[in-house]
Amino acid sequence: MSSATPGATPSLFEVKSAQLPLVVLLLKSGHLNDVARELQQRYGDAPDFFSGDPLLIDLSVLHDTQEMPDWSYLIPLLKRYHLVPVAVRGGNSRQMQAALHAGLALGDEASPVRAEPVKEPVVAPPPAEPALQPALIIDKPLRSGQQVYARGRDLVVLAMVNPGAEVIADGHIHVFAPLRGKAIAGARGYAEARIFAASLEAELISIAGVYRTSDNPLPASVFGKPAQVRLESNADGDKLLLEPVM
């Protein structure tokens, strides 16, 4: 029988700290049937919109309420849209305890780590310039049922977006033709994103999760005209502004 000398066994793994980019879901209601309907409305036509993104669930809006999310329903619901819930933050003690029992980690910001004193001041190097991500350019008309997603960049469409088609971008959307389908800019929460169209006739417009459908008709000042859509935030909340482009 062989024997091993203590300390001579090679290490088979290492544990290191890491940072993951997380998608954040700000949960505003514990009525999960309503949440499920809204998820279907927003992403039911885009089953590949998320691609296994780790998700942080923010309960800060529900903190002062008695609402208790049913985690056995919510977690599988989110996984159906290819989101992977990993952590929770912002809830009260009961909400957070229930989330822990459901297998989620605490996602609140960690306490700062005390650094060792240094004798000489350390000057941090300037941050590197982010790599320029070129826009995705589409030069053919998009038919009903077609979907284009510009992940991590802007989207430029040089032809018509027909009713039933969908254009999505993490950045801005520029349509140099009639926009008659759905347009979702700032898809991952970039609130500064805008939608530009040579002729705004969209079925749905959305920026950073704030959306407007054709159930609320576009005003005559922008319908069928060159226009832009942007997001305005104030004390009353977020709303879409539709403005003509001269």
Explain what you see.
There is one protein chain. The chain is of the alpha/beta class and 246 residues long. It has 2 domains: 23-106, Alpha-Beta Plaits (2-Layer Sandwich); 136-244, Pectate Lyase C-like, CATH 2.160.20.70. Helix content is 12%, strand content 30%. The protein has helices spanning 32-43, 71-79, 93-101; strands at 23-26, 53-58, 83-89, 105-106, 136-138, 147-150, 155-157, 166-169, 173-179, 182-185, 195-200, 204-207, 210-213, 227-234, 237-244. The strands form 3 sheets. It has a 6-stranded mixed beta sheet, with no helix packed on it. The longest helix has 12 residues, at 32-43. The radius of gyration is 23 Å and the shape is globular. The relative contact order is 0.09. The model is unreliable at 109-120 (pLDDT under 50).
What integer is the average pLDDT? 84
Main-sheet strand order equals 5-7-9-11-14-15
SS element count, helices: 3
Q: Which sequence of SSEs, written as H and E, runs from N to C?
A: EHEHEHEEEEEEEEEEEE
Based on Cα principal axes, name the global outline.
globular
Report how far apart the termini are.
86 Å
